[in-house]
Amino acid sequence: MIETARTSLREQLLSQDTRLLLWDIDGTLIDTTTLIISGLDEIYRHYIGRTLERSELRKLIGIPLSAQMWALGDPAEHGADVGEMCREFIRYYETHRHLERVIEPAILALRRFHGDGVPTALVTSKNRTELSNTLPRLGISKDVDLVVSADDVKNPKPAPDSILLALKKLEAEPEDAVFIGDTVHDLQAGSAAGVRCCAVAWGAGPIEQLNGMNPDYLCIEPDQLVDTLVGRRSR
């Protein structure tokens, strides 16, 4: 009996005109929604004296930490320093890091694609300090070719700059790439950069908001990522 040669995931992606994959981190590869919401709530109460509804705090996930500190106006008007607020948030986050949950099927998908020769980048709103804490816990340092953080560009997500920088460094064109993320901020950045977008429904972004952005792909469950990205599942 003659076995049919297996078509690699890279070849299957190429059949979808996809040559590289760009991945968000929070909410896409690791579940941090509850932890981020509780951390922002703690910081706002302590430094500003008031907070936002949880649904409003959730909407802030996906933009840089320094920008999140301005959600209730200029912190200086309350005698607060943005740098100190960011450091305190990171301290709170790390103290409660047991609330993180690595999304193993998403990590496995990333590893499978990269292992089949697909160029892979992380494009995140985390700053370098946050990344230095979280990235080792994901265990994927050998499975990515590039990491772009909020500190690497003047205008992070939802601006397209982070994605465009990743494309430049990987010597790729927007039409070559799919960006995978869980928030409207991710989809706005991807759309502005001219890449295709895969919205994932297990993160911070409500599915109705994600659908409203008309992503090229919509993935409901992490274990459907591979099939979704190679076109074996319809949107």
Notes on the protein architecture:
- With 235 residues, the protein is of the alpha/beta class.
- The protein has helices at 9-14, 33-47, 54-59, 65-68, 82-95, 104-115, 128-138, 161-169, 184-193, 207-212, 225-229; strands at residues 20-23, 30-31, 101-102, 120-123, 146-148, 177-181, 196-200, 217-219.
- The strands form two sheets. A six-stranded parallel sheet has the order 5-4-1-6-7-8. The protein has a two-stranded antiparallel sheet with strand order 2-3.
- The longest helix has 15 residues, at 33-47.
- It is elongated and about 60 Å long.
Ranges with pLDDT <50 over ≥5 residues?
none
Structural class: alpha/beta
Instruction: Count up the helices.
Output: 11
Ends apart, CA distance between termini: 37 Å
**Global shape:** elongated
Radius of gyration over C-alpha positions, nearest whole angstrom = 18 Å
The CATH topology of the largest domain turns out to be Rossmann fold
Please indicate the percent range of residues in DSSP E strands (runs of 2 or more). Answer: 5-15%
Strand order of the largest sheet: 5-4-1-6-7-8
